[in-house]
Every structure is written in structure tokens, then in C-alpha cells.
Amino acid sequence: MADLEYIARKARAAREFEHQVGPATFRMRAPTKLESSIAYADALGDKRRRDPATSLRFHRALVVQAVVGWSGITVRHVLPEHAADDAFEFEPGAAEVLFDAQPEWEGELLQALMQRIAERQAVEDTAAKN
Fold first, then answer.
1. pTM of the predicted protein model
2. How many beta carbons lie within 10 A of that of residue 99, not counting itself?
3. Which is nearest to 65 in space by CA: 33, 23, 29?
4. Phi and psi angles of residue 53, each rounded to the nearest 5 degrees, phi first
5. What is the pLDDT of residue 48?
6. Is residue 91 within 8 Å of residue 8, measured between CB atoms?
7. Phi and psi torsions of 87, nearest 5°
8. Are 112 and 29 in contact (CB under 8 A)?
């Protein structure tokens, strides 16, 4: 019998994929339905009605949460005037700093993520029909 940690690790790994953007390779993990719902609720905040920034906050939260690692990113991608090509290491909070400097990367990663979510939903829908 498999232990819970093994099953959880395998379930997370099944949701992971890599996506190349420019010089960088991002390791991403597609969110669960619950994680997506929580990200949306957080984006909505305490507002009872939707405001124009809700989808922007939601998309940012999805992408930031989905990025679980990267390679090929330097400090110059965030600070072009930085003297050396020092690696910009992944750590909590780094994705938001990077995406503020490289918003087109965020957009491309969002598209890749939404495609993965749609593919997963299609598989689930097909399985439910059988």
C-alpha cells in the first residue's frame, strides 16, 4: 500500500510541466480546481461586485502560484542596468518581481497554463462520460 506522501507527490508531479519563454524555462504546476477558486476569491477580495481589476489579480495569482521553479533567468531580466549576469534564483515572491519587469512572459505563461487547465478539463469530461 502506498503512503500518503508518495501519492501526494505523484499527484503534484502529474500536474507539472515546463514551458520555455525567451531564454527561460519555467517549471509550472497547474492548479487544482480548489486552488483556482481560492485564487479567484482572493482576487475578488471583499468586493460584492466584480471590478475591472479582478481578472488581472486572478490571472496574476494563478501564474505566480503555478510557477514552482525556473532556469535561465538573470538579475538583468529584472534590472537591465545590473553589471553582471548573476542568476535570479527562484524563491517565494520572486515571480511577482520578475513579471513586473517582464509582463509579456507572464502573459505567455498564463496562456500555457490556461491551455493545460483546458486539456485537463477535457480529459476529466471524457472520463465522466465513460
1. 0.85
2. 20
3. 29
4. -85, -10
5. 63
6. no
7. -65, 140
8. no
Cell numbers 466584480 correspond to what residue?
50
How much of the chain is in helix, strand and coil states, percent to nearest 5?
55, 15, 30
The confidence score (pLDDT) of residue 20 equals 96
Convert the pLDDT of each residue in 72-83 to its tens digit.
Answer: 999 999 999 998
Which phi and psi angles does 98 have, rounded to 5°? -65, -45
Q: Count CA within 13 A, CB hemisphere, residue 33.
A: 4
Cα 72 from Cα 88, distance rounded (Å): 8
- Residues with pLDDT less than 50, the chain: none
CA distance 44 to 80: 34
Instruction: Compute the distance between CA of residue 114 and CA of residue 63 in angstroms, rounded to an integer.
Output: 10
Do 69 and 75 meet the contact criterion of CB atoms below 8 Å apart?
A: no
Measured at the alpha carbon of residue 126, what is the angle toward residues 123 and 130, in degrees to the nearest 5? 135
Which 3 state secondary structure label does DSSP give 28?
Answer: strand
Contact between 43 and 58 under an 8 Å Cβ cutoff? The reply is: yes
